[in-house]
Amino acid sequence: MAWALLVTAGLFETAFAVSLKQSENFTRLWWSVAFVVCAAASFVLLSSALRTLPVGTAYAVWTGIGAGGTAVVGMAVLGDPVTTMRIVAILLILGGVLMLQLAPSAAH
Predict the structure, then answer these.
(1) How high is the pLDDT of residue 86?
(2) Residue 76 needs a FRET pair 20 to 30 A away by CA distance; which of 15, 19, 39, 52 works?
(3) What InterPro entries does the record tag this protein with (predicted)?
(4) Beta strands in the chain (DSSP E)
């Protein structure tokens, strides 16, 4: 359950980053509201996941999903450049996230 919360938190991180961009320095009301809602949801879900997951792993996974997801949305929707290097970088981020998820954690 904690992993599902963490993945959902990462998706909300992607949404809050995109909303922040679309808010145009908080001059567009509904994008600004979306940013606040998505940021709050992301942090609440991350906090819940941290009850059982190691903080280093959880934080790295959360930021990895957010960074990779934001880069993908930027390229797919917002017109960011699509280059081989960007795609490889996203794949490296996802690989790191998967490795952290699969790495055994020590018992507390």
Answers:
(1) 95
(2) 39
(3) EmrE-like, Small_drug/metabolite_transptr, Small_multidrug_res
(4) none
